[in-house]
Amino acid sequence: MPTTVIILAAGQGKRMRSDLPKVLHPLAGRPLLQHVLTSATALKPREIRVVHGHGGGQVQAAFLGQPIGWFHQSVQKGTGHAVQQALPKIPAGDVVLILYGDVPLVQPATLRKLVAKAARGQVAVLTAGMANPTGYGRILRGERGAVLAIVEEKDASPGQRQIREVNTGLIACPAGRLAKWIGRLKPNNAQKEYYLTDVIGLAVRDGVPVTAVAAESEDEVLGINDKAQLAAAEKILRRRLAGQLMAAGVTVVDPDRIDIRGELVCGRDVVIEPDVIFEGVVHVGDGVRIGAFTWIRNTLIGAGTVVHPHCLLEDGVIGPNCEVGPYARVRPGTEMAEGARLGNFVEVKKSVIGRGSKVNHLTYIGDATIGEKVNVGAGTITCNYDGASKHRTVIGDGAFIGSGVELVAPVEIGAGATIGAGSTITRPAPPGQLTLERSKQLTIPGWKRPVKGG
Ligand code: UD1
Ligand code: CA
Q1: Which end of the chain is more exposed for a tag (fewer CB within 10 A), N or C?
Q2: In sequence order, what DSSP letters do the residues of 250-282 get, joined into one string?
Q3: Which of 24, 54, 79 is the best mutation target for the ligand 1 pocket, counting ligand atoms within 8 Å of the beta carbon and taking the most?
Q4: Is 283 a catalytic residue?
Q5: Where is 37: in which H helix or E strand?
Q6: Which CATH class is domain 227-435?
Q7: Where are the domains of the chain?
Q8: Ligand 1: nearest atom to the Cα of 81
Q9: pLDDT tens by residue, 240-265
Q10: Measured between alpha carbons, how far is 403 from 359 in angstroms, rounded to an integer?
């Protein structure tokens, strides 16, 4: 049976104390609402509709290009009123699945259970047993255990507040019936709102069976209202993603200290030390080791490569059997070929480091093409910027650049050339020869150090 998903996301999220609309706050690098959209999409629904309100334009802009029907709720008159905005023109035979934009960890398998019940004509409510149910709507059951109604905390009697079975807010229901019940809602309650939850009582009155589907865990239905809950969700997700990596054979040294803000794909026998942050799409080959305190974004890392601690790697390709760091910064557009090495305090930008080449210490390489088996000495700098434009440096295979060399681009160093330490190279250096630029060393005979007051 076709499913239409309605995601409620019009709330302001006051308790976030932020200018950013609540559903745009990032969780594992993606907006809260994106997590809900991803779970909803896994069900292959006919349509996804989002009810937005606060910061509406900003919310829509963040999901541009995704197949979403947007419905504006200008005044927040309650969850029932929110659903009403998105009901027009849903075929009566559909199942409607109602999700919350701020309940991001819900799993597709759970949603499928709800939809399956609704496809059989029932109303399905996702419930959870909560150690501390404060603030939630409570599930009221009859003597034989049948669900009778949901009562909101603010409307509940002291006895009802003892109930620990709560409404998570997520509901699936046949569309035709839902439309009728929503039309009958009245704001006769403590908050003067149109409660979606009153649909349950109306269903029972009409003799339609209501089923409670229990969530896998409290975690799955965690609602995000403030930064503390956001951090709690981040922690749960971090554990979940680390669990998936470990199940696939990755050694995650401390599953509480890895951040995956995007997509991380690992080969066999990968080791990830604590406090590594992954962003965007990162692919890691077999046998790679990633050292502690490292940040990696949109990067491919070849098999057998070792990334030592304290590195920043962004938008690059690192070949197999390379070594990077400690304390290396690989900026966008860098490509390291097999067996290349970047050592400590080395920054590389938009450059190719050829096979087996070494740039080991205290060096800046920008806009350069370095051939194979090149050795770049400590403290070398490509002077790639003349204050107006960037220029390229080309270094041929097997060249040896002495320490403390400045290569003033555009400049070319021939294959097998040797550049003497301390040179400032401004013209092409021929292949196979020693080129150096150095003023003559002087010793002044009889020179005396000045003496104070002398
Ligand atoms: C709701 C449920 C409660 C449940 C709880 C779970 C009702 C009446 N109560 O309570 O039983 O235990 O969720 O978290 O449904 N929203 C709109 N427009 C509105 C009001 C809300 O879009 O006019 C959206 C919010 O952005 C949010 C969701 O609906 O994503 C829930 O709203 P919220 O105010 O947090 O619901 P509660 O009153 O906490
Ligand atoms: Ca010099």
Answers
A1: C
A2: -EES-TTSEEEEEEEEE-TT-EE-SSEEEEEEE
A3: 79
A4: no
A5: helix 32-41
A6: mainly beta
A7: 3-221, 227-435
A8: 23
A9: 999 999 999 999 999 999 999 999 99
A10: 11
